[in-house]
Amino acid sequence: MTADVARGREAIAWVREFSPVLDGHVRSVLSDGAIDGRKVAVVVHLEAKTAFLALVLAEAGADVVVAGSNPHTTNGDVVAALRADGLQVLAHEDAGIAQWEQDLIRVADTHPELIIDDGAELTIRMAKHRPHAFTALRGVSEETTTGTARLEAMHSAGSLPFPTLTANNARCKHLFDNRYGTGQTTIQSILRLTNRQFAGATVAIIGYGWVGTGIAAYAKALGARVAVVEVDEVRALEAYMDGHEVGRTADVLPKADFVITATGGVRAIGAPEFASLKPGAILANAGHHDLEIDVPALGTGREVRPQLTSHNLGDKQISLLSHGALVNIAGGSGHPVEIMDLSFAVQGLGCHYLASHDLPAGVHVLPKELDDSIAAARLAAAGIRLDQLQPYQLDDVSEWIG
Ligand SMILES: NC(=O)c1ccc[n+]([C@@H]2O[C@H](COP(=O)([O-])OP(=O)(O)OC[C@H]3O[C@@H](n4cnc5c(N)ncnc54)[C@H](O)[C@@H]3O)[C@@H](O)[C@H]2O)c1
After folding, report:
1. Ligand 1 and 145: CB distance under 6 A
2. Cα–Cα distance between 152 and 148 in angstroms, integer?
3. Residue 219 burial by CB count (10 A; 0-12/13-18/19+): exposed, middle or buried?
């Protein structure tokens, strides 16, 4: 389909309608001029919600360059709309890996001062291909769990010469985006792509962190039997206490009708685990890496429905969704607008904080008062008022110690 500016603009206008925090609180913070004239790179899944964030930054005076954080998730209409509004967009819909990486390197060549990154996809490529571009960089605000782990690894190796903020570790990000956003939309995408039913089915979830917890809750609410594979004892115990079956891949996979990976690592399931899969099982990934499921080990597939490929493994047939990319984004519309209003508010305030403070190199968290201000703005938009703690409600610890 040819890219259509009007369709892209409609999609962005729809996002704005349900983004009271970004459109109100964040705009007001950004209006102090801290990012005016700054080169800001936005490298997040390039669809309408990301486009709205990019426009809010541009309207605050930033010189914004936009690219996608995954080769499979760029929307051509949105790209066309941003270009028509004068933003520099270095992205292609359905880019192959090589084209996508080339686009990211072109972003690095614009010498951004501030980066809003996802999965640290731009930052790690700058480290590898354009390290000299780091000299212009004031800081990076990172979206995801995986990207945070990558930045921490760079810092431990002594190769992170600038400050970063992990948006993911803000409460207004992971409590809502990873859990409710990914939970709802992963299930939505799987059901739409397969036209199958969850009630009565067994859904295996590999990785019971914020994302796995959310997916499990939504699957259970639809009547699925949830079975969890987890390597961390405490999180495995949490899954057990949440009422799910817990076990090893060898115990869980033979009964699973659907298998969803959410570990943040690579090869959570590959050839050794495929041997345990139930014939007809459907595999989907919700984690950042396209290789949480070892897709090459599935061999060539046959597309039997859009984004659903069927693979023959010996005498059984297995289906893979969205080529192993994040199913809720590559195979759906991504997070609900209300969720990204919160996540991008964290990113917008993070970008402003990096522009207006001289932080040491390393991985930092958005200050608590800024995190809290996002929740306050969202509650206010929902017309919700809170009580304040009164002095007589505070426990005076000193009474007990002396
Ligand atoms: N699809 C989306 O829209 C979306 C949204 C937010 C985060 N993410 C991504 O989802 C992934 C998970 O994020 P999270 O916040 O839940 O991370 P998390 O660290 O809270 O949870 C990951 C869990 O997986 C477990 N784990 C790791 N390797 C495992 C393995 N091989 N087998 C079983 N368990 C394993 C870990 O012990 C941990 O409990 C990350 O890649 C993150 O970037 C995706």
Report:
1. yes
2. 6
3. buried
Residue 340's pLDDT band, with cuts at 50, 70 and 90, is very high
- Tell me what pLDDT residue 8 has: 98
Q: What's the pLDDT at 14?
A: 98
Measured at the CA of 242, the angle between CA 237 and CA 248, to 5 degrees, comes to: 50
At residue 6, the pLDDT reads 98
The helix-helix angle for 182-194 and 210-221 (nearest 10°) equals 50
> Which pLDDT score, from 0 to 100, does residue 401 have?
62
Which amino acid would we find at residue 308?
Answer: L
- Verify whether ligand 1 is closer than 6 Å to residue 328 (CB atom): yes
Contact 98, 25 (CB under 8 A): no
Residue 146 CA, ligand 1 centroid: distance in Å: 8
Distance 263 CA to ligand 1 centre (A): 3
Going from the N-terminus, what domains does the chain have, and what CATH number goes with each?
A: 5-173+335-381 (3.40.50.1480), 181-330 (3.40.50.720)
Q: By the 8 A CB rule, do 189 and 326 touch?
A: no
Q: Assign 402 a pLDDT band (cuts: 50, 70, 90).
A: low
End-to-end CA distance of the chain: 75
